[in-house]
Design brief:
Elements lengths: L1 E5 L2 E8 L6 E5 L10 H5 L6 E5 L16 H14 L5 E6 L1 H12 L4 E7 L8 H14 L5 H8 L2 H6 L1 H12 L3 H13 L3 H4 L6 E6 L7 H10 L4 E5 L6 H4 L1 H13 L1
Parallel strand pairs: 3-4, 3-5, 5-6, 6-7, 7-8
Antiparallel strand pairs: 1-2, 2-4
Helix pairs in contact: 2-3, 2-8, 4-8
């Protein structure tokens, strides 16, 4: 395990793969930690330097009091990149990780060469939805959301065929610190990259599972149309977390995109 104190908190991260190779930095979704990329990384780490980290309030990183701003998450990542002395990289951001990625592109155009925006959007849901979710968790804890979250995360077939994996994902979600979940919900609620997305000048691949219940295909397609020159790829038989359901398919898309 590797830890570093940056931006006033401790960040848990993992740095693997050949140092001379192209660098990919992965940013996780709400209610997960960097283990969601495990199977995907197996297919990539012989060719790329891979950086993974736990967002603030998640995994083994520090959990400050909520609420958070999306800039808090962006600054955490920016300082980690500087600490690791990375001058050029490609980003893969999932859900809120995609918002963090867009923010990093906006604030650090000097280092981000390309990005995969996975099951995310320029703005995710509306203020009322996030406020309702925050209120529910404050009153009843994360348990109140776990069943509906698994419905959004996974396709029907995956849930039927892989009950053990889904149970593990439930455990990961429920192990998320409540304060970290609430803080990041507030950050997503207040984040809007609609204007910034229109100004992106680097290659972008938008990826979405066709059964995503959080950021459906039409939402991700809209984002791909806002970003100049962005491509769209749809993974059949996947929900909101394709790196858990379809890691090999996602790895192929990432490789093709980065090698183009």
């Amino acid at each position: 395990m590797a830890f570093v104190k940056l931006n006033g908190i401790v960040i848990h991260y993992l740095d693997e793969g050949p140092r001379e190779a192209k660098t990919i930095v992965f940013s996780n979704s709400l209610g997960t930690d960097f283990r969601i990329w495990n199977d995907l990384v197996k297919a990539l780490k012989s060719e790329f330097r891979i950086i993974r980290y736990d967002n603030r309030g998640h995994g083994l990183s520090s959990c400050p009091l909520s609420p958070y701003k999306i800039d808090d998450h962006i600054n955490d990542l920016s300082e980690l990149i500087d600490f690791l002395e990375i001058s050029e990289l490609s980003m893969v951001g999932l859900s809120v990780g995609g918002l963090i990625t867009q923010g990093l592109i906006n604030t650090r155009p000097d280092i981000v060469q390309s990005a995969v925006l996975c099951d995310t959007a320029h703005k995710i849901l509306n203020r009322e939805t996030w406020n309702s979710r925050i209120a529910a968790v404050k009153e009843s804890g994360l348990e109140i959301l776990v069943d509906s979250t698994m419905e959004r995360w996974f396709s029907k077939k995956f849930k039927y065929d892989n009950p053990t994996e889904v149970e593990g994902a439930r455990n990961m979600f429920l192990c998320t610190p409540q304060e970290g979940y609430l803080g990041t919900c507030a950050a997503i609620r207040d984040a809007d990259f609609t204007t910034a997305a229109k100004k992106i000048k680097i290659p972008i691949l938008c990826v979405v599972g066709d059964e995503d219940g959080s950021t459906p295909v039409d939402v991700v397609r809209e984002t791909s149309e806002i970003i100049p020159g962005a491509r769209l790829a749809i993974i059949n038989g996947a929900g909101h977390i394709p790196c858990l359901e379809k890691p090999n398919e996602l790895a192929i898309l990432i490789k093709q995109f980065l090698n183009d």
